[in-house]
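Incident log, structure service

09:12 report received: a user says their structure output differs between two submissions of the same chain.
09:20 pulled the input from the user's history:
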Amino acid sequence: MTNPILQARGLVKRYGRVTALDNADFDLMPGEILAVIGDNGAGKSSLIKAISGAVIPDEGRITLEGQEVSYSSPLHAREAGIECVYQTLALSPALSITDNMFVGRELKKPGFMGKYMGMLDRKAMEDFARAKLSELGLMTIQNINQAVETLSGGQRQGVAVARAAAFGSKVIILDEPTAALGVKESRKVLELIQDVRSRGTPVVLISHNMPHVFEVADRIHIHRLGKRLTVVDPKEVSMSDAVALMTGAMQPDAVAA
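09:34 re-ran on a clean worker, output below:
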């Protein structure tokens, strides 16, 4: 039996009288794409924020590779190997692709100039960024130093995913990665997600787009009323059944994977 790489048990998060997470569980297996779906207000965002360090749960425990962890911030989770690409992408439009890839973790030149003068190793950063974009088939971007604001929506999403793939050594979480994209660009992002998985990195995909979920997910975590309702296999349930479970029109008794 394979153990989950990332697991949560009994997560509770309250905001005043509102309970966003109500004894929620979560399991991400090594090398899989796990889709997380749920109606608006189901607590998906709170769950993802809890496992990526953006909020601190009131109760419950989270383990990464079998070790209990407690993150005080997304930066703390990132250092542990959990990268999250939010809907807003968190890219700086005026900065170059390279600068966006390395923001907050710039490479210094070796020796005196880097250590004492703080000079950045531009060439090393550019070479690394170019290599990572090439790995994910994104070298339709000609100039690694062009500003992110000059890129299309799909290319920007690609840069954000490439950054996560480059530094998210253990887990990548993608929040609605195709929400603002057209058909062609969405297709590219779905291929990117599968490329990341093929390199052995597990991916958590939060999405409202059911065709996308059923196309790429290995398992589907259905979140309802602040907790995990069930986990289903997209090869064994229909899209309409998944929606019925998500909205409460159907109970999970016979469809749990």
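09:41 both user submissions now match this output. Likely a transient worker issue. Closing.
09:42 reviewer note: The chain has two domains: 6-91+153-254, 95-146. The first strand starts at residue 6 and ends at 15.
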